[in-house]
Amino acid sequence: MYITSGTSALLRRASHSSSSRTGKRVFSSLSKKPASPSPNSNSSHSVGNQQTRSLSYFSAARWSHGVDWKSPASLASQIRISSAFSDTLLHRKIATMASENAFKGIFTSLPKPGGGEFGKFYSLPALNDPRIDKLPYSIRILLESAIRNCDGFQVTKADVEKIIDWEKTSPNQVEIPFKPARVLLQVLFLDFTGVPVVVDLACMRNAMNKLGGDSDKINPLVPVDLVIDHSVQVDIARTENAVHENQKLEFERNKERFAFLKWGSNAFQNMLVVPPGSGIVHQVNLEYLARVVFNNEGLLYPDSVVGTDSHTTMIDGLGVAGWGVGGIEAEAAMLGQPMSMVLPGVVGFKLSGKLLDGVTATDLVLTVTQILRKHGVVGKFVEFYGAGVGEISLADRATIANMSPEYGATMGFFPVDKVTLQYLKLTGRSDETVSMIEAYLRANNMFVDYSEPQQERVYSSYLHLDLGDVVPCVSGPKRPHDRVPLKDMKDDWHSCLDSKVGFKGFAVPKETQEKVVKFLFKGEEPAELKHGSVVIAAITSCTNTSNPSVMLGAGLVAKKACELGLKVKPWVKTSLAPGSGVATKYLQESGLQKYLNEQGFNIVGYGCTTCIGNSGDLEKTVGDAITENDIVAAAVLSGNRNFEGRVHPLTRANYLASPPLVVAYAIAGTVNIDFDKEPIGVSKDGKDVYFRDIWPSNEEVAEVVQNNVLPEMFKSTYKAITTGNPVWNELAVAAEKLYSWDPTSTYIHEPPYFEGMTMDPPGPHGVKDAYCLLNFGNSITTDHISPAGSINRDSPAAKYLMERGVDSRQFNSYGSRRGNDEIMARGTFANIRILNKLLNGEVGPKTIHIPSGEKLTVFDAAMKYKSAGQDTIILAGDEYGSGSSRDWAAKGPMLLGVKAVIAKSFERIHRSNLVGMGIVPLCFKSGEDADTLGLTGHERYTIDLPSSVSDLRPGQDITVKTDTGKQFTCTVRFDTEVELAYFNHGGILQYVIRQLAAKQ
Q1: Kind and range of the H or E element at 7?
Q2: Burial call 388-408: b when 16+ CB within 10 Å, e when fewer
Q3: pLDDT exceeds cutoff 70 at 96
Q4: What is the largest CA-CA distance in the chain?
Q5: What is the pLDDT of residue 836?
Q6: How far apart are CA 552 and CA 713, in angstroms?
């Protein structure tokens, strides 16, 4: 499914000109103020009081049917607007909406069991259309949204019919409009995306000002909550005060950036910031923010959400339709743009049976990921069904849904059932709220009851997994879908050592594979490393730290190991980063945290840490031993991404594993072990200890979960989250609505996107005699394109920082400096493990400047091309742009002067982001790529596009010509008419600014 911020339905009714009368109508809603809150809302906070408000609007009883449980717009309006609706006006508003809707005949009341009503809703059964009964549950959510928002303009009856007729229309890639219940820019704007988003908003205000428009028009029209959870690094580990020390360093590094975010929360309407140390965004969303069903001033409808992190899909495990969108298109959504999407196919994935003893949710998700990658689900929804679904916990479902990006799907959806309702009660949702959720979903045929006969649903394709076939496993050493059964791990490791350099190979000569490097740890303690030695063991990431069974399972492994006298070697960097304070509470309540501490898994902070590359430095003697002896060192982490160069520059082998397995591998000290046959260590009485001696049974895990994961833990944790962080509250920020850019800042810098912008769209651009900047193979990720980790001391970004007096110890990470375009442009394609075919096998962030033949850093080569006025393109293979949905992976190439990317295939969000930045995405024809066409990257490329956007159409074929006489046909991957409009304007942000300015 390809998602953009807008609808071709709008463009079919309006010309591409920004001055068209209809175009003005489309954007008339952009200037509308949010609805006023109810009389009981907390609306008295002034701008001056905002540093203390943080999440204060959640401090009331959020899960009641009162004013604190509404749509995001209603929640935000409580902060800013003091006028109030009376009950009469609220009911009148709902009645007016229904009377204008083409489906007003199915607008009905949902009665309460004891009398009265929960609210009103649009009833799908009332349509009496048998096609609806066969629709996947995930498609029913799209249908309900289309019906509820059917105004005959943005959403038409024809759009509704397309969705109802999904079985016939989805294979044809038809386009539909979709309005999610939450454009969750709320909370799912991580600070990695959030900083450049606020930078762009501030910059757009300046651009609007220069065009003579009202800069206050640049304002989020939906609430934006930023959860700062990607900035904490594991600088301090294996100590009781690690949380405090890491948070202190986090604020020292990022004070300017945090202050900027706080300025944004004051300057822009509907923007709140969740301070550092609160938890991982997806876990906070799962445990606290998700509604499942909205009761918006008496109007009932399903919760749905989009977010700027690809793992937004975790919420699908709760029955909330959610997925990731690019930061660029999300900014437009903030400014009132509706969403357009291609109606997706749905893969039905049937689960049966039960997991065997000793098998974890992580083993299950790695198995599912491998199956779905093999099947091919890019752009599709995956919907899980069958009796086996009822046998797995909500947390296990969330783990599976979380890794949707890794198996390539837009969503991995679990419809709501009794297990969902039990989880809602466990996490503190009120009985009345849960009753309303169940009543609504049953009434609208969106609830699954596995105790009743199931009506057959139609899917685009079908898969089946017997849960009893799942075995313990890990994935790696370089990709999440390269699953390795635990029993095969040792053989697979030796195969990786032998194989040529690639996703499953390190090409280590046979004669050096068994070498042992001896050194003094910290100059004092004798230590040794071999190929496969574990130097990082991290319990981290949203994927697993929200799941009590695997977290407490890790504690049980640590306990058994401690009782037998086993201990992790001190040179293994161990860490534990829970997704929320709830995990800390149940680990402490169970008494298991003390055993984790004894093994070095002290809590280091609340954030993504190692999974995002914020693993911190290895101890110097360890790092030196690795680099000086070319050791293939290993990291084992409970994350979702293990792409090369992401976790740590010195760990070339990175394995994803369940938290209990992370502890086990840390104790073993190596991935070169057969857990079935070889001892994991020696007990205090001198006996060999095997893996089976420290591994807990499912019954042991279930008992400790039952006794120690309690509703009060969730309630107390999320009550505390609203009080904010004391250090955060002390940050002083200016009250101006236009940001005062500091030209000396190395964190926040005004980007050049709108320089020289006028009210006239520039129109489509072709590419003339372009050079190839980079020639890639398959699976180039956003980590390769725009790394998030540490800044290498020899990089162009490091040079820029040092020229401005920044000491190398204060470089911080690329992710932390995403508010500075100068650094991010220099960091584009700066991954030290990137493989560029122009370098003939050499690995690293360099390329060949074709005209001169010089080998330069990618940034220096790009600047040389730009200074000569020469266009550049990129050649790539399959899955270009896979991984995290990073807007800088599109912004950076644009700033380097890249005009087009020609690839075999694109990751969904990244392709959309390229379009949003005005870069042309093109796909080779099936069966063709640069190699089969004989392209070396030394050619010059010409891509002729029509000069008028009206002569372009989505999915059009065009001819690419080279100066060698070769030419080939590509498909231009503008997938909707809206994307053509963005391209016509030079990008999505320019499009929005012109529309807002034209309206005035």
Answers
A1: none
A2: bbebbbbbbbbbbbbbbbbbb
A3: no
A4: 85
A5: 96
A6: 15
Binning pLDDT at 50, 70 and 90, where does residue 646 land?
A: confident
Q: How far is CA 94 from CA 97, 154, 222, 517, in A?
A: 5, 19, 20, 72
Show Cβ contacts of residue 451 under 8 Å, excluding neighbours closer than 6 positions: none
Residue 847 CA to residue 863 CA, distance in Å, equals: 12
Tokens 């509820």 belong to which residue? 148
Residue 943 DSSP SS3: strand
Instruction: Give the up-direction half-sphere exposure of residue 676: CA atoms within 13 A in the CB hemisphere.
Output: 9
What type of residue sits at position 840?
A: N
| Cβ partners under 8 Å of residue 547, min gap 6 | 361, 393, 395, 396, 398, 399
Question: Residue 30, class by beta-carbon neighbours within 10 Å (0-12 exposed, 13-18 middle, 19+ buried)?
Answer: middle
CB 207 within 8 A of CB 331: no
∠ Cα 802 803 804 (to 5°): 85
**Tokens matching residue 745:** 């800042």
Asked if 519 and 623 count as a contact pair (C-beta separation under 8 A), the reply is no
For the purposes of burial, counting CB atoms within 10 Å of the CB of 452, is it exposed (0-12), middle (13-18) or buried (19 or more)?
Answer: exposed
**Cis-peptide, bond into residue 477, ω within 30° of zero:** yes
What are the beta bridge partners of residue 475?
483, 656
3-state SS class at 55: coil
CB contact set of 715 (below 8 Å; sequence gap of 6+): 428
> Angle 275-398-6 (CA atoms, 0-180°, nearest 5)?
70
Please report, for the chain, how many H helices and E strands are present, in that order: 37, 35
Question: pLDDT digits over 162-207, tens only?
Answer: 999 999 999 998 888 888 887 655 433 334 567 888 899 999 999 9
- Rounded Cα distance between 45 and 33, Å, is 18
Residue 236 is given by DSSP the state S
CA distance 324 to 330: 9
Mean pLDDT to the nearest integer, 404-428:
95
Helices 137-148 and 157-164, packing angle to 10 deg: 170
Which string of DSSP letters, residue by residue, matches 289-338? I--SEEEETTEEEE-EEEESSGGGGGGGGGT-EEEE--HHHHHHHHTTPP
Beta bridge partners of 111: 117
Label residue 931 by pLDDT band (50, 70, 90).
very high
Closest by CA position to 81, among listed 126, 120, 42: 42
Q: What is the pLDDT of residues 525-540, one digit of tens each?
A: 999 999 999 999 999 8
